[in-house]
Amino acid sequence: MATIIPLTDVRSASNAETRRAELDAFVRNAANGSFTAPGPLHDPRGRPLHDLRISVTDRCNFRCVYCMPRDVFDADYHFLPHAELLTFEEIARLARLFVARGVAKIRLTGGEPLLRRNIERLVAMLAETGVADITLTTNGALLAKKARSLRDAGLTRVTVSLDSLDDATFRAMNDADFPVAKVLDGIDAAAAAGLAPVKINMVVKRGMNEGGIVDMARHFRGTGHIVRFIEFMDVGATNGWRMDDVVPAAEIVRMIDAVFPLASTDPNYAGEVAERWRYRDGGGEIGVIASVTQAFCRDCSRARLSTDGRLYTCLFASDGYDLRSLIRGSTGDADIDSTIAAIWRQRTDNYSEIRRANTARLPKVEMSYIGG
Ligand code: SAM
Question: Of 73, 355, 46, 371, nearest to 239 (Cα)?
Fold first, then answer.
């Protein structure tokens, strides 16, 4: 496989420093700001703050070629030292503030969230915030072992990534020689523990696994699980993304529809990421996530908290707002809340609407650091 060269050059590195300084100044000013009326938050485009994604580790036991390519994330790669990670107490404190501002769904992600020791304890702490939905995205490797304890701690649902049912293809894509069968065991354990409906994420990359789309649909039809087919995205700066590698969601739907006729279905709520399709014969539903070919920025209601406590208002952002400096300083909850409100109220992100071939080269945070 060709070596993938990170695309950051000297000029963008100095831009990145300037941008970080601007965001840090924004946080300092907002934290010294005046009282902000409580209640749900909307950004200038009218988008509510509804979902919070929390990356609990930047480490992963897989090296998926489209996410953490092994040539970059190798033995010399500097993962965050433990002291840089938000503690569970820090995460729970921030989560409480977000929930008070209207967040109804929290998703734990990473890196691989099940690698974070005692993750069940964090789930239990988040359940105490009263948030309606706590879910988690995992590669499934440790799920068979942990599904029951996660459920007991208060997890409501789980999403499992599985890019192919063909063992050779899957092992090549996860680049950790991990077999399909073990992920399927994890999915079974999750369903048995009541973490239903289980969602299954398949990232489709041209020339790699699109031949397995219909097999994936066939395998999970009638099980109650929901497969979501995801367009390969230009997240981060290391996965060598090219538009030619994207299999458009419309093509995916056509392939499945030709074998198992589909009808489109309404979203569960405004801002839902996946476009829903149901099998006409009642065999369940699938979703497609078309971030590249059908941008859904217009409804995006997601904030992302990175492993080291930066708040990102877009998956494709180059940097985030440092909330950790506030919680590790002497800032009280009211001022942290004002900062969160100020950040959301000036959020204008719409990266997927302005994506062009050359925007893929902009410096962007890695997905493993802010989570999927
Ligand atoms: N380790 C966990 C997992 O494998 O699900 C959670 C983190 S992973 C970054 C979250 C999701 O993002 C996974 O479903 C993964 O397949 C997806 N993902 C990662 N890189 C992607 C890319 N470039 N385009 C589309 N989806 C991607």
Answer: 73
359: which 2 tokens?
């925007």
Q: How many CB atoms lie within 10 A of CB 167?
A: 13
Residue 286 · residue 252 · CB < 8 Å: no
pLDDT in tens, 150-174: 999 999 999 999 999 999 999 999 9
Give the closest residue (by CA) to ligand 1 atom 2: 138
Long-range contacts of 42-46 (CB under 8 A, 24+ apart): 42/344, 42/345, 43/313, 43/344, 43/345, 43/346, 43/347, 43/348, 44/345, 44/346, 44/347, 44/348, 45/298, 45/348, 45/350
Q: How confident is the model at residue 326 (pLDDT cuts 50, 70, 90)?
A: very high
Q: What residues contact residue 17 under an 8 Å CB cut-off, 6+ apart? A: none
- pLDDT tens column, 77-94: 999 999 999 999 999 999
What is the distance between the alpha carbons of residues 292 and 243, in angstroms, rounded to a whole number? Answer: 9
Distance from the alpha carbon of residue 232 to the mean position of ligand 1, in angstroms: 9
Residue nearest to atom 11 of ligand 1 (CA): 372
* pTM greater than 0.70: yes
Q: Which residue has the higher pLDDT, 56 or 240?
A: 56
Nearest CA owner, ligand 1 atom 10? 372
